[in-house]
Amino acid sequence: MEVTLIRDDLDDEVEKTVEVDEDSMVSEFLKSQGIERQEVLVSRNGTVISDKHELSDGDTLKVFDVIAGG
Q: What phi, psi does 7 have (nearest 5°)?
């Protein structure tokens, strides 16, 4: 099945379509893409989700870097 990954960082936005196994979880997908879960927020089809969600064919995941300051 295919999932679209949109990586939004400070400089630009990168979009790519990735082939994933059936029953893949968000956490597994992020790890396969070299993305540290504790450093990002993930939205699926416009809704923020946890890494325990199962992916579905055609999902669009948008990954935002978490930035803190003071």
A: -105, 115
